[in-house]
Every structure is written in C-alpha cells, then in structure tokens.
Amino acid sequence: MSLTIKQEVQEEPRNGFQEIVEDMKRIQSESSIDETEDEGDEEAEDNNNNNNNKIELGPQCTLKSQLEKDKDDESLRKWKEQLLGNVDINDVGESLEPEVKIISLSISSPGRSDIVLAIPEDGKPKGLWFTLKEGCRYSLRFKFQVGCNIVSGLKYTNNVWRTGVRVDRVKQMLGTFSPQQEAYTYEMPEETTPSGYFARGSYSAKTKFVDDDNKCYLEINYAFDIRKDWANSE
Q1: Mean pLDDT value across the chain
Q2: How far apart are CA 152 and CA 178, in angstroms?
Q3: Sign (positive/negative) of CA torsion 18, 20, 26, 30?
Q4: What CA–CA distance (Å, rounded) separates 226 from 24?
Q5: pTM as predicted
Q6: Are 100 and 217 in contact, with CB atoms under 8 Å apart?
Q7: Are the CB atoms for 93 and 62 separated by under 8 Å?
Q8: Count of other CB atoms within 10 angstroms of residue 155
C-alpha cells in the first residue's frame, strides 16, 4: 500500500516544449550554446534563491526527540499526530537528516503500458533512456520512501536541452513528508510532447530531487528521443 499524491488535473495538458520549433529554427542561424554554461547558470540561480529565502532556525533535533517532548501536553501531542501521521517511534531512529529513496520512475500515456525506467546507481543510464512519440500525451509517476526524519520542501526539477539549447525546464514542489514504511506515489500533471520535423530527434536532460536545504537525493543525467512513433520495444 502506498499514499498517492496527484497534482490537480489541468483543463489542457501542458506542452513541455512550447517553443521548440522557434528554438530549432533560431539555432540554425546561431552558434551552439554550451550546455554546461547553461547548467551552471541554473545551479547558481537556485543557490542564490535558496540563500535569499533561507530562514535561520534553532538547533536541529531528531524526530524521536521531538516525539518524546511534551508528552503530557494533550494539544501538542494531537498536533504532532496530525502533522506526522502514523509514525512508529521505533522506526525513526536518531538521525537528524531525513533519508529519501526514489524507488521507481515511470511514464504513462493513454492506451499504452507504462514505461518503467530503471534507475542506475551512478545516475547515468547508458544510451537512450526512453523514447516518446511526437504529439502524445504523457505523465510522470514516481514512488519514494522517507525515513529517519521529516523531509521539508521536497522538489522535482527537470531540464531538457536540444543541441545545447535549453528547451524546457520544470520545477515542481512535491511537499513535506514524514517518515513511514509505506511508499509515497506522486503523479505529475499531464503534458504533451512537441511534434513536427524540428521536434523529432535526440535530447539530453537532467532530473533532480532536492529538499529545502538543497540536499540532492537523486540526480539523473540521461538522453531520450522523440520520434514519429513509439519504439518497437515499448
């Protein structure tokens, strides 16, 4: 059993690469932009935002210590139960840092079996990670487990490049999660792949799962294709 968190469905699916055609036409007459520079700018921007928004809090303590505090205060006990849910004090341990493990990633498209993506230990899938059909509707689903302590402000980010030009960027706040044995399941809003001559081809991308402290729990650098039709193996 797992807890499913689903984003509110939009009336129209988001087109992940709304300006892809314009970008591809433009880069035909421009020099290629270095992808690493683009990534560096992105990470610098994220770090600046984190520093600007960072709030100095008091000393950290373990979740177990928090649960054991103020046991005789009925209102505080109920508030903690509402915040943390069914947390077993014997399972949380003494760690100050949360543990987040991404268990699975999959892509769903109407009328097709899910594409289940293997997560390599080094975060670098060999070759193409997956292929999508042009103009198809799809959504991403992932399962993850949280242990030891509360993870605050867990975020999913995904950046996509074509010939060194970033053509798509997604930042999705997933939320704050308490540790539990059951896995959480999160479903992203539905999107639509671009279509047409300029949209078809290979892309490079980077996916990250980070929290409010900018601690990264998973980073995957991968390549994928958009084609006229689905790959035969899928």
Answers
A1: 78
A2: 9
A3: positive
A4: 14
A5: 0.75
A6: yes
A7: yes
A8: 16
